[in-house]
Amino acid sequence: MNLFHSELSSLFKSKKIVKVISGLNNNNIQQIIKIVKCAELSGASYIDIIANPKIVSIIKSITSLPICVSSIDPLQLYNCVLAGADLVEIGNFDIFYQKSMNFSSIKVLKLAIYTRRLLQNKDICVTIPHNLSLFDQIKLAKNLEKLDINILQTEGFLSKNNIIDEVNALSYSSDPIFCSTIKASKALASTYLISRYINLPVIAASGIDYVSSSVAAVFGASGVGISSVIKHKKTVYDMTYYLNQVLYSIQLQNCSSSRYIVSLLQKEISYFKLINQYF
């Protein structure tokens, strides 16, 4: 592990990273400030915000937390570093998927190469697109490691199987552990496989909540990314309370419910290995 940011480096090594994501296209400064304050109060590791230099400057003036900015534009990332961002991320692709825009391995590699040329002394995180096959995700992760990328992030694997997942989740809706497993299994399955083949820290994101976050480290993650589950909370208190649950959950990786989720997720991984060739 080779990170430029010494504080984050030690947290990644302990596998207790909690990244709070406000959204790649979220320029609502009031909401961003609320999310930043709840991240501070709960003791989160760092925050991930829109790549907007003006917003970066404002957030930098009100928090001591490390600031990450996300974009698919290397020049935007560079300008945000000039404004005070501590690290950058190529990714958080959700808004582009909604527009039927997918990202190939070649596209991601080109963005990574350009960004590294611009930012030689900053930590760069790259999201591995979920639309890639598991084989291609691992191949991309290896190539990114060769480019001296510092951190990787996984996404949920969205496909036709979501229909099956939703039906199954409804059948077990009274079991919160099972429902949590359904939401997180795709991201953690990718995390498990990628982390076995590379030496970079991996953040598991997409569908992660306070239950599934407790087993992220078991599946090779150095941390988790939390986003939608707190953005829907109405107050800073509610946001902070939920993040506290996530942080507490990470401390309980050996509890019985965590072992139960691990067994379910291992079955999910076997399942995705079988179906992956069709997507």
UniProtKB/TrEMBL annotation:
The keyword Iron does not apply. Keywords: Chloroplast, Plastid. It is found in: Plastid. It comes from the Eukaryota. Pfam families: DUF561. Its main location: plastid. InterPro entries: RibuloseP-bd_barrel (IPR011060), Uncharacterised_Ycf23 (IPR007570). GO terms for cellular component: plastid. Belongs to the ycf23 family. This is Uncharacterized protein ycf23. It comes from Acrosorium ciliolatum. The gene is ycf23.
